[in-house]
Amino acid sequence: MTPTEILVSRLLEPEAKELKLTLVVGKSGLWRPIADSRIQKPGLALTGLDEVLHPSHVQIFGTTELSYLKTLSASEQEKALQTLWKAEVSCIIATKGMSIPASLRKGCSKARLPLFKTPLPSAQLIAQIQAFLEEALSATGSIHGVLLDIYGVGVLLVGESGIGKSELALDLVSLGHRLVADDMVLLRRRREGSVYGHVSERLMHHIEIRGLGIINIKDLFGVSSVRLRKKIDLVIELKEWGNHNEFDRLGTEEKTRRLLGISLPEIALPVRTGRNLSTIIEVAARNHLLKLQGHHSAKEFVKNLRKRILKPRPSAENTLPTALDSADEEPIV
Fold first, then answer.
1. Are both 107 and 26 inside the same structural domain?
2. Nearest one of 84, 86, 28 to 60, comparing CA atoms
3. How far apart are CA 184 and CA 173, in angstroms?
4. Residue 24: which of 117, 103, 147 has the closest Cα?
5. Does residue 230 fall inside a structural domain?
């Protein structure tokens, strides 16, 4: 699911409590959409440049805007605010706990435009509300798999049901790595082009092991064995050995998997009795870190091999010793 907008009412939910918003007027307008995380300060719009306003944006009234309004007469204030009513903005937030002019209160009430106030200064509010909106407006989804933090690398294990993802995750946790989510991994795309995985509150810290049932990883291995979210860096697909599945023998193939529109590196690992998959996955995580540093072992091996194959061999006559070669040699006694 990729939300393109959220409702203004989200700003009053517990997840936005850090914004410290209080609704002044405009309760009937909480259905208005917010379609962009960018915040506007409508100083220029109040002077008549209404083209700078964008619909479905949050408007911040700080010291500059509120002080400017107070310098205008009642009729001038009403005229200046008309640009906001026509632009169909999302809402208005007055910062720093400043007193709100009556014209702004009455106008927002009449236009059914939510008007909030907050004790936070403008700079702090803008930083916090942009971070909140970027999170709320980002693409989301879910995938069946297991997400772990291995040496700081977010490794997502995927594969058919019953192939052993949870058992493998338990083995890796016992080796000191951290579990993020089992069975259902919730996905969220960040604007910088990365995908984060996190666990639902209902499944938090739990893992299902066939034969044992549901176990709590945090209770068994301690708080350091779990985390709530992690950026996904590498996808590892577990596949049955055989079944016409082909696997990369050299490691030079660059396979990717798209999650929420972002391409992530992917490895296919064959599952077979007797294979130490936990160690192989640890090595895969370490190898991924090496690649990020510019060291690609497989490609370097192939490159060096090609150099040796293409290197011209010395001719036979060049390999025979000459009189000049032996002139400086001491006689053998």
1. yes
2. 84
3. 18
4. 117
5. yes
- Residue 274 to residues 34, 90, 198, 282: CA-CA distances in angstroms? 54, 60, 31, 17
Q: List, in order, residues 6 or more apart from 39 with CB less than 8 Å away.
A: 57, 58, 59, 60, 126, 129, 130
**Strand pairing report for 58-61 and 39-40:** parallel
Buried b (16+ CB within 10 A) or exposed e, 63-74: eebbeebeebee
149 CB burial (10 A radius; 0-12, 13-18, 19+): buried
Answer whether 237's CB lies under 8 Å from 145's CB. no
| Residue 294 three-state SS | coil
Give the integer Cα–Cα distance in Å for 166 and 285.
18
Place of tokens 């590892």: 236
- How far from chain centre, in Å, is Cα 100? 38
Active site residues: 144, 165, 183, 249
Domain membership flag for residue 188: yes
82-115 pLDDT per residue, tens: 888 888 899 999 999 999 999 999 999 999 999 9
Least confident of 21-35, 144-158, 317-331: 317-331
Sign of CA dihedral 61, 66, 72, 74: positive
Q: pTM of the full predicted structure?
A: 0.62
pLDDT digits (tens, 9 = 90+) for 247-290: 666 666 778 899 988 899 999 888 887 788 999 999 999 989 98
Let me know whether 35 and 157 are in one domain: no
Q: Residue 239: give its domain's CATH number.
A: 3.40.50.300
Residues 172 and 292 in one domain: yes
Residue 277: which domain range?
A: 140-303
Q: Which residues contact 269 (CB under 8 A, 6 or more apart)?
A: 236, 237, 238, 239, 247, 277, 280, 281, 284
